[in-house]
Specification:
about 240 residues; alpha+beta; 6-stranded mixed sheet; 5-stranded antiparallel sheet; about 25% strand; globular
């Protein structure tokens, strides 16, 4: 993970480049993006001219097209970027709490296996900037959704005592980073091949957009991955 200019670059090996944009960034090239609606729908990008209208109601993308960047938009939700260096395929996942409950990352890994023959054990994953456990204060109804979905609540939830309006220190907190990691390991990824940025968008508002802090009309972080047509580095 290396900040460079207005982009946060991820080292996912030779032949691929991946980044998240900072607040002031402009995209260095076009990125295919879906129109996300907090579903668990995964779409195949089989041509580079797909638009957000073509990808309505989609929250994860997969592709094996070279030089075709795919990405998802976030502003507290958790972005997940996936790379299969053996089959040369990539995935980009928008995993908010609803998508996490529905295990969208796990479904994306399954889609990569079905489309490209990906072995989950070969995958490299990056969990990018998103709301951290100290900031993701939730109500009982959200906690119940995770419990009903079979998550080990002892691993992802903490009760921090009395809740005060406008104060994030108390109440129930969910660790979305760890919840997403659990869905990835559940899909067959090895823990050491999952890299978490550990950057809370709510707490780093000067660098990243945060819908919880700024409102839903704030800007969005673009989290992108692109397979090179050769084993090179960015640029």
């Amino acid at each position: 993970m290396m900040p460079e200019g207005d982009l946060l670059w991820y080292d996912m090996g030779a032949g691929v480049e991946a980044f998240s944009t900072l607040r002031t960034a402009t995209l260095p090239y076009p990125v295919v993006q879906p129109h996300q609606t907090h579903t668990d729908t995964v779409a195949l990008v089989d041509r580079p001219d797909l638009t957000r209208q073509d990808l309505e109601g989609v929250d994860a993308l997969i592709t094996n097209l070279e030089e075709c960047a795919i990405g998802v938009r976030t502003a507290d939700c958790i972005p997940v970027l996936l790379y299969d260096p053996i089959r040369r395929a990539a995935g980009a996942v928008h995993s908010g709490w609803r998508g996490t409950v529905r295990r969208i990352s796990e479904k994306t890994v399954l889609s990569m296996h079905e489309q490209f023959g990906t072995d989950p054990a070969d995958l490299i994953a990056v969990i990018g900037p998103g709301i951290g456990p100290d900031s993701f204060q939730v109500g009982q109804e959200v906690a119940d959704e995770f419990a009903s979905a079979g998550f080990d609540m002892s691993q992802i939830m903490s009760d921090r005592g009395s809740r005060t309006e406008g104060d994030m220190s108390g109440g129930l907190h969910i660790d979305l980073w760890n919840a997403v990691r659990m869905t990835l390991t559940g899909a067959g990824l090895s823990d050491e091949r999952i890299h978490t940025a550990g950057i809370c968008t709510y707490q780093n508002n000067s660098m990243f957009f945060s819908a919880r802090r700024e409102g839903n009309k704030c800007g969005r972080i673009i989290n992108s991955i692109k397979i090179h047509g050769f084993c090179g580095k960015k640029g």
